Amino acid sequence: xxxxxxxxxxxxxxxxxxxxxxxxxxxxxxxxxxxxxxxxxxxxxxxxxxxxxxxxxxxxxxxxxxxxxxxxxxxxxxxxxxxxxxxxxxxxxxxxxxxxxxxxxxxxxxxxxxxxxxxxxxxxxxxxxxxxxxxxxxxxxxxxxxxxxxxxxxxxxxx
Length: 159
Description:
Blueprint: H1 2-18, E1 25-33, E2 38-47, E3 52-54, E4 68-71, E5 77-84, E6 89-93, E7 98-103, E8 106-115, E9 121-129, E10 131-132, E11 141-149
Antiparallel strand pairs: 1-2, 2-8, 3-7, 3-10, 4-9, 5-8, 6-7, 9-11
């Protein structure tokens, strides 16, 4: 009986140690101060070799999930325009039977905001994204991105 429990324990230990946890994307944030109380938020994804992070623009909802950013609303700032991205690679993906727009290695998304206050403040953006490699896709996930906005000179038109 003791040998039986020992063999079960060894089996589960081997199974657990062989399980892999994939986390192929890491995010970092930076802030570029512009003029008149404006800031460019930079959200950079570092993507492990062999993985694809999808663009914000995909041809259909029938394939992978497009990357999506949400900035938490605040009276401290105004959002100017949409989140920008560089030109993605476009390639036919036989797994989804469509052309897909994606990024490899590293990509920086940018968003311009205009401060309504002169004091420093913190803000949060949320990114929702999905990644795939040649064999599998990981479930979409949410990641919070933090920004520390420095004190700035706000133009008279926002006062």
